[in-house]
UniProtKB/TrEMBL annotation:
Residues 62-146, 187-217 are annotated as: Disordered. It comes from Nocardioides aestuarii. It comes from the Bacteria. This is Rho termination factor N-terminal domain-containing protein. Residues 62-82, 91-138 have a biased composition (Basic and acidic residues).
């Protein structure tokens, strides 16, 4: 409380209030009464009026002293009330602290309960999610197993087909080996026959070569004879064959191509003659 507050001022002075009040009353009442008594006794030969007034003054002094005691008592009660205010303030502060502690505890309890409920909710959601995930995985696993089983069945059929194909291939390979052996034998026979035929053809070729050589010699001889005839007199070149014309042209020193036409050969021979 502010020190300038009336209650603070009154509480600070309660210890010396009775003496202070007594002195004030004594100065205010007693001294004027005594002065008045002296003055009255000195100025009036009659003392009854003065005594009555003195008695009233004493009665007033007594009342003042009673008021002083009452004031002192009230001052004590005011100080006690001030002390009560401080006690109430301290009690109120304690109640506030207690209320704050209780409120904080309730808040902590609410937060803990909310956290527990949240944890339970999360745990329940997680459990449901895991159950759904397990169900989904089981469905995928079942589908995968079915596809694997189908693939295994296809693989088994493919293996059986391959085994059958291998068996057929083996049979065909055996047959091919047999055919190859037969072909080899036939080839040997054909080679032997070809060798015999080749020898025969070689002999025939040699014979043809001999005949060709003989004919060439005859053509050459005939050419020389034609050349002699050409040198000795006119020659009917148109009556000669192409081969005879070629031989004649070569015999007289002309370089001719056997592919030339007959008339070109005749012209070349005639131009070469003087």
């Amino acid at each position: 409380m502010n020190k300038n507050h009336p209650m603070s001022w009154l509480a600070a002075r309660t210890r010396r209030a009775p003496a202070l009040v007594g002195r004030v009353v004594e100065r205010v009442v007693a001294e004027p009464a005594r002065g008045a008594k002296v003055a009255v006794s000195d100025s009036s030969p009659f003392g009854d009026g003065v005594d009555a007034r003195l008695r009233r003054a004493d009665a007033a002094l007594d009342r003042a002293r009673g008021s002083e005691a009452e004031a002192a008592e009230k001052a004590v009660r005011a100080r006690e009330a001030e002390d009560g205010v401080q006690a109430v303030r301290e009690a109120g502060a304690e109640e506030v602290r207690s209320a704050r502690a209780e409120a904080d505890q309730r808040a902590d309890d609410v937060a803990a309960e909310a956290q527990r409920e949240a944890d339970e909710y999360v745990a329940a959601k997680e459990q449901r999610a895991r159950e759904n995930a397990d169900r989904d995985v089981a469905e995928v696993q079942q589908s995968t197993d079915a596809r694997v089983e189908q693939a295994r069945a296809r693989a088994d059929r493919a293996r059986e087909d391959a085994e059958q194909a291998v068996a057929v291939a083996r049979e065909q390979m055996t047959e091919a080996r047999r055919f190859a052996a037969e072909a080899e034998e036939a080839a040997r026979d054909a080679a032997e026959a070809a060798r015999g035929r080749a020898d025969e053809l070689a002999r025939d070729a040699e014979q043809r070569a001999a005949e060709a050589e003989t004919r060439a010699e005859a053509v050459e001889k005939q050419g020389r004879e034609l050349a002699v005839v050409a040198d000795s007199g006119p020659l009917e070149l148109d009556a000669l064959t192409k081969a005879e014309l070629v031989a004649l042209a070569r015999d007289i020193g002309l370089e001719v191509n056997g592919n030339k036409p007959k008339k070109d050969l005749v012209t070349a021979i005639r131009r070469s003659r003087p």
